[in-house]
Amino acid sequence: HRVMHSWGECTVDRFAVTANAQLARFDSPYNCLGCEGIDTFTQNWEGERSWINPPMNKIAQVLDKLRNEPGAEASVLLPVWHSAHWWPILQEMCDDSCAVEVSAKTVRAGEHCRGVPEPLRRTQGGWKFRVYHIPTRVG
Length: 139
Description:
Helix content is 17%, strand content 23%. It is of the alpha/beta class and 139 residues long.
């Protein structure tokens, strides 16, 4: 709610299934009840304010999609990961961020997040997450 209050209401949840969708409109990796689109990367994001909580192995692809669709705006939930290859791109694209509380049990070392293994063995308290705002840009 704090994110939506700061940056505006999101219009579509980009990585969801019926059981975990945060918004009425959502894209899913497969056809499920209520989904608006399958494979969010094939959907047009321009003119939308997306809520994006991607699997870790899709973060670079999400940032690339946002960069190539300048009419898109997004609130993206990501780990604070300064050594990631996509980190400088994120810092260049975002105009604001806010810390969020995520249970350490959500993504612990060796566990899976949405079926994707956690890539680093973070044994010291798990990951810290922030929501990053990617504003609409002109081409």
